[in-house]
Design brief:
six-stranded mixed barrel, Ribosomal Protein L25, Chain P, RNA Polymerase Alpha Subunit, Chain A, domain 2, extended, 13 strands, 223 residues, 3 domains, alpha+beta
Length: 223
């Protein structure tokens, strides 16, 4: 398992002041644990988070204390997509945890390459429970078995590491290949789009005419 480490400082300044200095405000909290307000260097956090994500343990040093943590939640700037705040969950290595683990699709599907189908992946993560030491960074799925349009891959088909219990619905489909549309189907879709556009244009013209008539209607003279 890859080790990820972060150094933090106990937070004393206001959040806006920290961000101005290139630091990210954060908090560490957990079961039977008094929350600690911290801040981290933005570049260092971005580097670690890029690889650790939310499914890898991070060794956090905050002041003189050290903790095993997971990124539990984070807040993004809606315009710049920069991280504004992070919630770290303090982990007890002797207690099982719930986590959402990403699915990584590998391999080549002949139904996509040779039959010109489209790979459909309805979900990209699964819910699991395990001890922190058994926490997988990702679940790898080989899509090469999808060699026709009838086959699919379900959660129950996944190779799950020892010590990990899957909480997601086992019959849920995570990957299949959709058959390409026929020319008739594509033409029908095109006709539907054209009809929708024409209907919208007619509706807009009707609203414009009504608005114009309302503006041009003379006001009644006072008697």
């Amino acid at each position: 398992m890859t080790e990820f480490k972060l150094k933090a400082e106990l937070r004393a300044e206001k959040t806006n002041q920290l961000r101005h200095k290139g630091r990210i405000p954060a908090i560490i909290y957990g079961k039977n644990f008094e929350p600690i307000a911290i801040s981290m260097d933005k570049l260092e956090f971005d580097r670690v988070f890029r690889h650790a994500g939310t499914s890898n343990l991070i060794d956090m040093t905050a002041g003189e204390k050290k903790f095993k943590t997971l990124v539990h939640d984070f807040q993004l700037n809606p315009l710049t997509e920069q991280v504004l705040h992070v919630d770290f969950l303090k982990i007890n290595m002797k207690e099982k945890i719930h986590a959402e683990i990403p699915i990584k699709f590998e391999g080549t599907s002949t139904a996509v390459i040779q039959l010109e189908g489209s790979l459909i992946t309805p979900i990209d993560s699964i819910e699991i429970e395990c001890l922190p030491a058994d926490l997988p960074a990702e679940i790898v799925v080989d899509i090469s078995i999808l060699d026709d349009f009838e086959k699919n891959i379900k959660i129950s088909d996944l190779a799950i590491p020892a010590g990990v219990e899957v909480l997601s619905e086992p019959e849920e489909i995570i990957a299949f290949v959709q058959e390409p549309r026929s020319e008739e189907e594509l033409e029908a879709l095109t006709d539907e789009v054209v009809e929708d556009v024409d209907a919208i244009e007619v509706e807009n013209k009707g609203e414009e005419t009504e608005a114009t008539e309302t503006e041009e209607k003379p006001e009644s003279e006072e008697k």
